[in-house]
Amino acid sequence: MDRETMKDRAAKTQLPAQWREARALYPLYANLAKEFVIDAPACPDLEEQAEAPSEESVRQARQWLLDLDERIQVHQLRQFLQTSSLASEQGLRDLLSHHLAKKHSDTDRDKIDFLFVQYFAHCAPSGLQDENVDAACVAQVLEPVLGAVDRTTPKWLASVDQLLAEATATKDLNRLLAAHILDKGRQLKESLGEEYFSPMAIVAFTRFGFLMRRIFFRLMYQDLHGIVEGLRELEKNGVATLDCRRAQFSAEEPISRLRMICQSWKVLFHAEYSSGQPLRMLVDLRAVVDGALARTAKTVAPPRPAGPLKQAAAAGVGAGSDASEFEVLPSPPDSGE
Q1: Best exposed site among 28, 95, 107, 220 by fewest CB in 10 Å?
Q2: Rounded to two decimals, what is the model's pTM?
């Protein structure tokens, strides 16, 4: 009986902290549910932000969050947090605290993995270069959440570094997808079981996720830039439509529409870089455009040799050049990835 009383007392001392967490997370969860049309039941005390709720109200609020966790998909959380003003440093900490305290499923692990990467991207120093993103740097940024991290190097860490080296050496998005590096990283996380939630493992995989995100963005922008420039060249040569069935579009897709799709993809991929289907479509569209350019080049008569002045102009000497349709950043801003 005494033991049960002590347990009850311990639970009651946690109520204020649980209520503070629930109140902090409620606006984020409510907006996320609204954006993705998740039908969530009302939680009156949370809606009213009650100052002194009953024990039952705290329990219901906690359950309300847990129920929504079951319905929120990883890709929805990723998209929302990379586009919402509610994703502040404190908001990310609250989410991490909430998820780390739960009994972990595979879905929880994926969410925690993303949340740590997003937290690091949000809090890391601006202008941070890839070569400076080492374990010590990541551990320092994550210290407010993880505390001091034991830097003992686990044996499996070599596998993470090997995957990063392979990804860094990849020159285009098609080859990166073919290498299945994200899948290999996910398999490694799963193989660790509960060890994944150890501080050093979280540091290692946060570094992996952050650098993979940068690599994906660079290669995606590279392909988008190549597609847009290719479409511009095709238009100059009188091409109005392309057979884009390979990329899951129509057999006579107007180039003007493809240009609009590329601009919308620029926004989509800004928030969702790990979704396989859109990335495959991007790679296939690049192949379609490159193929059309190759065919067009064969049918266009070669230009006559230019005189010295025209040669200089063609080389860009003493003349300005047209601005690129959209800038390809060498490294996308950390906080917006």
Answers
A1: 107
A2: 0.78
